[in-house]
Amino acid sequence: MIKQFINRFQWPAILGLVFWLAAVSAVPAQSYIGFIYPAGGQQGTTFQVTVGGQSLEGVNRAFVSGTDVQARVVEYNKRMGNQEIGLLNEQLRELKNKQTEKPDAAITNLIARIEKIVQDYVNQPASVAIANLVIVEVTIAPDAQPGEREIRLGTPRGVSNPLIFNVGQLSEVSAPPAPTSPLQILGKEEQSLRRKKHATEGQGGSEMMMMAAMMDGPGSQSDLDDEEVRIKVPCTVNGQISSGAVDRFRFEARKGQRLVIIVQARELIPYLADAVPGWFQPVLTLYNAKGKEVAYNDDYRGSPDPVILYEVPEDGEYMFAVYDALYRGRENFVYRIKIGELPFVTSIFPLGGQVDIPTVVEMQGWNLAETMLTPDTEDAVPGVYPITTRGTNGLVSNRMLFAMDTLPECLEKEPNNTPAAAQKMALPIIVNGRIDPPGDRDVFQFEGHAGDEIVAEVYARRLDSPLDSVLKLTDAAGNCLAFNDDREDVGSGLNTHHADSYIRAALPTNGIYYIHLNDTQHHGGKEYAYRLRISAPQPDFALRVVPSSVSIRSNSTASLSVYAIRQDGFTGNIKLDLKDAPSGFELKGGNLKGTQELTRITLKTSLAETKEPVSLIIEGCATNGERKIVHEAVPAEDRMQAFLWRHLVPAKELKAFVFIPPPPPKPEPPKQPAPPTTSKPAPTNQPAAPATSKP
Question: Are residues 182 and 240 located together in one domain of the fold?
C-alpha cells in the first residue's frame, strides 16, 4: 500500500524510506520466528496476526500445516536504528507540509502509518530475536478441523522454524498486539513498563484492533493491566503479558455451571532461551463478585499451563486474572485462555492398548457427552497418539495421549500392595494400572533365571499422567537389586519433569522376583494411571532430525543433524535414507554406527529452485538379529532453556526449500581521475619586470 502511494506521488526521498521498510538486504541462512499473536483463531473467520522474529528480510509467504487454513503476508516492519528513525521523522515533516498544501486521504493514511512506526520505536528491545514484526492475514474455513497447526514464514532464501497455531471453535477476544518491550535495566525496571490496549471481541474486528493500535500508544489510558475487560462466555481470550502486568477479565456465570478455564502459554512457546524458568509460567486466579479468591492454579499436574475446574455456586459476576509467576513479561509471553462449559477430560484408563486388539477406554472429566471410547488400533504402528472426545455442546475436548504396543497386555488387579499379595506375571507383559488411593503401592511377581536381563519401564508422565513413579526390583528375600526414580527421555522434548522410572538389571539366580511401583510423594487417585513394561530388553531406537526447516542453494547441499535415541541397549548400525524421495533430492552419508547418538547428514539437490517448500521424510533402517527395524525420523527444533538445558522440540513436518541466490552486487565503476586544473599566477605587489628588446 505504501509503495502505491509513493508511485502515485513520485517522491524519491520516500522511496528510500520504503527500501528500509522492505529491507531486502543480505539475509542469514536461517529465518527465525519467536512468537505469533494471537496464536489461533475461530473457524470461519479472517483476521490478522503479528509474528515476531529475526532474519526475515524479504518475507513474502506464510505456510500453515494441514488443510482449510490460508495465510498471506500483509506487511513487514523491520527493526530500525536511530538514524533510520531520524530520517522517518524528516519524511514525516515533509508529508505533513505536503498535506497542508493539498490534503489527500492517501497521504493521511501514510502519515498515520509512519507515526505508528515512530511511536512504537524502541532503541533497546528486550529481545532482539523477536523485534522484527510481520503482519499475516489468516483465513480459517468454517469446517477446518479444530486443533493444533504449525505456521512458518517464507523468505526468498528459505522457510522459518514452525510455531504452534490453533484452530478454535469459540468466539475470540483479543487485545491489539503489544508494542515492542524495552530492555530492563537493573535498578530502573520501571522505565521498561509499558501499557496495552483494550481487548476487542470477535476477530472479524481486526480492523478495529489495528485502528486502536494506531490511535493508542504506550501510555494510553486503555490498559488491560489497570482495567478489567468484560467478556461473554464461552470464548477464547488472547493476550500478551507485559512486565509486571496482571490481565483481568470479568464475566457472568450461572449457578450450577461446570466452568472450565484452560490456559495455553508454555504449550504455545515451549522454551525461552533467556528466561528463568525457561518458559512463560502463567498463574490463573478466579474471584467472585465480592473479590474473594475462589480458585487458584499455577500448573496442571505436570504441565506449567494452569487449568481451573469450578462448579459455580451462585449466579453473579466472576473475574479471572492471569499473570506470570515472577511478574516477567514481553511480547512473546503469549497466552490463549478458553473459558466456558467446555468438555475437559481429566483422565483416561487404560493409557494404551495392544496393536490390532480393540481397547475400550474409560474417560473421566467435565461436560463430556460420552465417557467410553474405543480408539482405532487396527494396522497401527506402535507409538503414542492423541485422542479426543466431544462435549455435551458438541465442542471437541482437550487432547489425551494413548500408547500402542505389540507386547501382550493386562490390567492391574488389587489387592497387590505387598509381596505376599503380589500380582503374578508371565513375561513379557505391559501392565495397565493405577496408583489409587493415595499411598497405594503395586507389586508384581515374576519368575526369572540367573543371568537373564530384565527391564521394567513406566510410561505415565510421558502420557500426561500426574504420577511421579518410583521403581524397585527385589528378590524373594526382599533384597533390593535395582532402584530408579526419574530417567530422562530425550525423545520427550516437551516434558519439564522426566518423572518416569526405568530399571535394567541382570538377575543373579533362578527364583522369584518382585517389581514394586508407587508414587514418590505418595499421591494417588483415578488419574494416577501408568503403563508398566516388564520384559527382557527390547533393543530399538527412535530418531530426531534437526532443524525442521532446511534451505538449499540451487544445485547445492545443506546439512542436518540426526539424533539416535537408543533404547534397551541397542547398538546396531542405523542406515539413513530418504523415504519416497521427491525428484531432485538425495541423501549423502551420515549413518549411525554402534553406540553413536549423533551424526551429520548431507541433503543434496539437483533442482534450481522450488516454488513451495517440499516435505521430506528421513527414515532409519537397522537389524536386531533377524528382525528388521525401520523408523521415521521425527522433525525437531533444538531449543535452549534458561541459558543451558537443550531440548529437541518435535515438529509436524520436515520442510526443504531450494532457492536461487541473488546475484552479487555489481562492482562500482572505477572513478575517473579528475582533469588537471590550470592555475593562474598568484597576484603580486612587485612591479613587473621591464620588457627586453632584441639587440
Answer: yes
Q: How far is CA 241 from CA 181, 282, 305, 569, in A?
A: 11, 9, 14, 45
Q: Is the same domain home to 129 and 151?
A: yes
Convert the pLDDT of each residue in 103-117 to its tens digit. 778 888 888 888 888
Please name the residue that has the C-alpha cell 515533509: 94
Judge whether 346 and 465 are in contact, CB under 8 Å: no
Q: Where are the beta strands (DSSP E) in 536-613?
A: 540-546, 549-553, 557-567, 575-578, 585-588, 598-605
Number of domains in the chain: 4
Same domain (yes/no): 306, 366? no
**Of 405, 427, 455, at which residue does a domain stop?**
405
Using only C-alpha atoms, what is the Rg of the chain? 32
Verify that 277 and 135 share a domain, yes or no.
Answer: yes
Q: Measured over all CA atoms, what is the biggest interatomic distance in the chain, rounded to whole angstroms?
A: 148
* Domain span including residue 506: 409-538
The string of pLDDT tens digits covering residues 347-359 is 999 999 999 999 9
Inside any domain, residue 47: yes
Q: Which range among 205-209, 375-379, 595-599 shows the weakest confidence by mean pLDDT?
A: 205-209
C-alpha dihedral (288, 289, 292, 297), degrees to nearest 10:
30
Q: pTM for this structure?
A: 0.86
266 and 331 fall within a common domain: yes
- Counting runs of H as helices and runs of E as strands, what totals does the chain give? 5, 48
Cα gap 140→444, rounded to integer Å: 51
* 73 and 222 co-located in one domain: yes
How far apart, in whole angstroms, are the C-alpha atoms of residue 320 and residue 314? 16
Whether residues 294 and 197 fall in one domain: yes
Strand-pair category, 429-434 with 409-411: parallel
Average pLDDT along the chain: 87
**Whether the Cβ atoms of residue 636 and residue 560 lie closer than 8 Å to each other:** no
From residue 666, give the alpha-carbon distance in Å to each of 23, 659, 662, 663, 670: 19, 20, 11, 8, 12
203 shares its domain with 126 = yes
Under DSSP, the state recorded for 199 is P
**Nearest residue to 651 via CA among 541, 522, 521, 550:** 550
